[in-house]
Amino acid sequence: MSLWTLILPGAGAVGLMMVVIWYLGVRHHDVSFVDRVWGLGFVLAMAGYCWQAGELDPRSGLTLACVALWGIRLSWYLHRRNSGQGEDPRYTAMRNKIGPSFVWKSFLRVNLLQATILLIVSTPLAVIAGGGGDAFPTVFDIIGFAVFALGLGFEVIGDAQLKTFKANPQNRGQVLRSGLWGLTRHPNYFGDSLLWWGFGIISLSCPGGYWTLVGPALMTFLLRRVSGVTLLEADLVRRKPGYAAYVAEVPPFWPRLLPRRSAKE
What we know:
Elements: H1 3-28, H2 33-36, H3 38-53, H4 58-82, H5 89-98, H6 102-121, H7 123-129, H8 139-167, H9 187-203, H10 214-226, H11 229-239, H12 243-249
Helix pairs in contact: 1-3, 1-6, 3-4, 3-6, 4-8, 5-6, 7-9, 8-9, 9-10
């Protein structure tokens, strides 16, 4: 079965989901619904790939479970965090800039764009679902699932630490500098990137896995340079007085594992 045939059901499910989410965004005047289903989109895609492949082998079955664990947790976390907060300011700025035509242009610039990115990032999942390759587990499988677990841990712990910090009224307007947030300014983004490299490494056990590394590479680029760190920090520096000092002390993405040298050293 060709890769294009394999991805059709997953692509169709993701496309249908984006149409529904676009409609909800138009109806409720809130495009940021799309962010809450980002994780679920990968679950739908992987489920579609596995369904088209016809059977689950140990590698694809475990990968499907990992994708479901990550995707459902992420969507639930974002839903609980963002419910009642209104539209994300980034989308509101886009809406104000485009004007009345934003109703239909948002489908192209937000929903369709995210669906396309999702399918590109998920190419390692499609190759894994297709089966074949060396008997499970290979060295790539062991390393890949370990990297996934480390990335998921970074994301979950980082989110939990930030939630606890924000729950304390005394921290209002302050910047979290402890825990994982003392190693990198965005442990959740780093963890997200890392777990996708885990899936990419697992795909190396399958025929054609090498070229699918474009998926985690794209995810890392977007998180570091486009929609993640860069876009978010432009707003944080304006809103939080202490954030500029935090930027000067803690790396933006890749964790600093060794203590920082003082200026006197």
